[in-house]
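Narrative progress, year one. The postdoctoral researcher (J.K.) led the effort to move from monomer predictions toward full complexes, under supervision of the PI. The following entry was the first complex the group processed end to end, covering 1157 residues in total.
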Amino acid sequence: MIKSVTAGSVLACLLIALFSFAGLSCKSRSEQTRRQVVLYCSADQAVAEPIIAEFEKQTGVKVLARYDTEAGKTVGLTQLLRAQKASPSADVFWSSEVFHTIRLAREGLLASYHGDDVRDWPGPADSQGRWYGFALRARVIGYSTKRVPASEAPESLEALLESKWKGRIVMADPRFGTTGGDVASWFAHYGGDRAEVILKTLKANEVRIVAGNSTAVRWVATGQADVCITDTDDVYAAQRNGWPVAMNYLDQDGDGVLTIPNTVAIIKGSPHPEEAQELLKFLLSEKVERMLARSDSHNTPIHASLAAEFKQYAIPKPLEIDYEKVADELPNAIRQAGEILR
Amino acid sequence: MRSASLPTVLTAAAGLAVWAVLIPLPLVVLYLAPVGDPAGHESLSSEIPRLALHSVLLAAGVAVSAVVLGYVPGQLLGSTAGRRKWLLPLILMPLLLPRYVLYYAWSLLLMPTSTLGAYISSRPALARPAGAATSTMVMVLWYWPLAALLIGQGWASMDRQARNAAKLEAGSVRRFFRITLPLLTRPMAMAFGVCFAMSLSEFGAFHLAGVKTVGTELAMLYQLTGSPGAVARAAWPMAIPAVLVGFGLWRRSKDWSVNPPTDADDARPRFSRWAVLAGLMGLSLLIPLALLIVNLSDLEPLRVFIKLHRDGLAWSLLTASVAGVLAVMIAGGALAAGRFARWASPFVHVSIFLAMFLPGSLTAVALTKTMGLFGISADAWYVISAGLAVRFAGLALILFRLAADSRQRHLTEMASVDGASPASAWLHVHLPRTWPTVLGAFGLVVMLGLTELPATMILLPAGLPNFAQRLLNQMHYARDQHVITSCLILIAVYLILTVLLAAMFRTMRARTGAVGLLCAAMFLAGCDSSSDSPGEVDVVDAIGRTGRGPGEFIYPRAIDLADDGSLFVADKTGRIQRISQSGKFLGIIQMPLTEAGKPTGISVCPEGNLYVADTHYHRVVVFSPAGKMLRQFGRFGEDAGCFIYPTDVAFAPDGRIFVSEYGGNDRVSIFSRAGEFLGSFGSPGSGRGQLSRPSALCVDAERGRLYVADACNHRIAIYNLDGELTGYIGSTGSEPGRLRYPYDLALMSDGNLLVCEYGNNRLQVFSPDGRSLGTFGSAGRQLGQLAYPWAVAVDGKKRAYVVDAGNNRVQVWQL
């Protein structure tokens, strides 16, 4: 008995030490009197965290953030929001894309917001004020500068369909993230039949499907593929690491490249509506766009006042496309892409 | 002390309650989910059957490679008892580096910024196979320690006699294929099964590498659908190998405690084996660590981590620590089930192993679904702890079972014969010995829980920072310097935890070791003294003391009286000492071979020669009274005239010799005076005419009887001198007339039978018609008390010479 008491005491001491460390470090949870807001965020965690820290510092409102991973990019959080529709836990949804946000709005999960600060919103937005878009990214073709000369690098979706790229292309799983929206935009822009041909031609070109856009870029960098379809931020990340990867915008039939805004929305039935509005206003501020443009992600600002400051990230020819229409096409596009590209 | 103490019962009950709530209930809910949930998402889950074959082949390849690589370390582990203490943790060390970290570290070599990566990346013909092979290689490098662990147990349980015999007769290659491989088939199959099942549900490394498997797709499916029903439907096939392997693991784990390795088996493993182990440790641990360190070029991420992300590490430590406690409770509950509720034990064990083999995403979905059913919010930090505990309780259970060596089984038996309940024995005897295992299991779960991903990704509530998720995201965003910094911090945390645990082991051992042994010994020998009614004992003398010198004993176990009244006493030093009745040392007979074991039976024949049951050499050796070896008979085997473990010898008036034995034969063989085999009787078992460890023989020539101490059946069998059973004396128990482990017999001059009861720590006298005429002695250390008496002899004056093994003495009692 003596021994079990002794050993138990030692284990208890270990646990107390661990708990104390946790308690000292987890400074926020015990501060329950502080105002808080629950954020579901599919923007990249490393990019979002400094912005959230700035919001907390500026407002004193504690943000309880829930991030996703590349494994279920955006889709996982939207499913969770649907599951919690009757009793929402989240106050604000910050998505790294727009198409799933539109579908959530249509399903009645998002609340309208019409503050003065969004009256003449310069970027994409819902007509009923249920979401606002900011900080754009674009779809690009990433290519290996070691194996693909810049002069031969594909500059459009059509170029990727050429047989010379057979066995050399990689792209992310279209069921998740921006790739799904991109494929849906092909259906919206080219029409269903042609989009289907595009997918079948990509399949004939033996396109490889990987978990996410960043993995696709990594494949190009390590020589497992020569070109990839991805987002601007993933190529910027590769270049930051010194990888031999460059990019061309993924032009659709000469009409321009699909741009994808971040979106922010307040959840209908939000437990903390005042704090939710504060966070929404903050995320839509010039300050945040500047932070995002300066971040590793290098998003393109929609505020005109920032255009000159970040002209290096300007997207030369954005595709004129109705996001609502792309969102319409999303389920069908994902299904067809899944069937054709498997 | 006979009933389990309240804390023991409560601890066991708490462990089983945690198990019931966290494992079977969610599993049942999950697999009933398809019934409750509307069908749908078939198109999304259709990918999984398509990937099944590919995933199975991949997992099988990983498992086969892991078994091949784990063979040599397993051999080292299983055949070197002295080194096991440090070899086991050493071999387990690579498991602490998460598979996705291992993958990331190795993939740094393929990055175009490295020389090798630059070379490979410019050659697609090399780059593609290299990229595809990296994740698989990493899996193999992570799983070989698990395979080694199971193969090592196989080695430890191997029939050494068969192997040693084969060593003499066959070359190494032939021996491997004809002897070793067949003997190791089951543990190797088990190792394959464990590695296969776990590879099949792998997520992190394959996800990062862009390799699609059933494991990655199941995690994706829940993200896509948010439907437990869809996940459960898709995951049904995964449960089949998991259940099979879980069942197999449970079956195998029952044998783990049988034969601990001995140094004698393989005292000096070849250098090449150590070289293989060193190579594997390098590939699985040292090189990846070196890759991380040499690629660290910026300390800014460290500053950022300390400033911004230490809360994630702290919360992860907290959740993992609670998970560690829960996992240890579950594993402890499973062991308790084996003692308190044997019928439930298979179900408890298999369900724990099943939960370990299922994908983490399934575990998480099952928990959230269950909590939803009961209206409990899953949005809490402790739900992650629950998920981690479910995932890693199986590992804790494996460690617990591995730690249960044969000495513990022996201690259990000893505690049992002292009257302690299994639970009391566990609390007072085993718990002090097993604290290192408990803490080790706790530490392992904490370390693995810190980096677990599939379940954490689903269970992580809003606002709770998490180390593993952030690390995965950093990997995705190719923030190499941040990733490397996080990995090195993780390793530092592991080191701190290891040092902390090691310090605790040392402190506990120092403080509790001596006291523990003393308490255990006192408990074992003395705890029942108050509950029994010792018979009156007239102690005449006590001969001998602890030691290896003349007149000293180390655990004496056999005795007989010579014609001149002197005593022959055999102890565990392999000596047979001849001692006068007054305790004077007269001489010594040294057994010719003692490495395999020492004799347990000695009998002086009517001619005065000494017949020694040389138990572990499967023979009877005959010495002259002066100690000269005259002859021997018997050899190992089950055939007529052979022995497995001979225990005692007795002599019929007509010169025939009876030899009892156990170990599988459990019979009495009859030989002529010349050693010619004449016949045998008895077979292993507990039925009528069967024997279980017949440990002593005694001939009553006057009544034409042969008494056989049927020790493990707790009875004395009575045969006539032709080997026909005529009756029994005694049954299991402690009351007068009952017996517990009767280990020796002696016939008194009045025809009564003197029985030495190892289990009841006493002598008991029976009349020829089987009535108990009295008991003498009780458990303890004082004169008149006994600790594990093994043998007895009695002279014509009714003086009993009791071999008080646990007290290293021979007591002389006047009956």
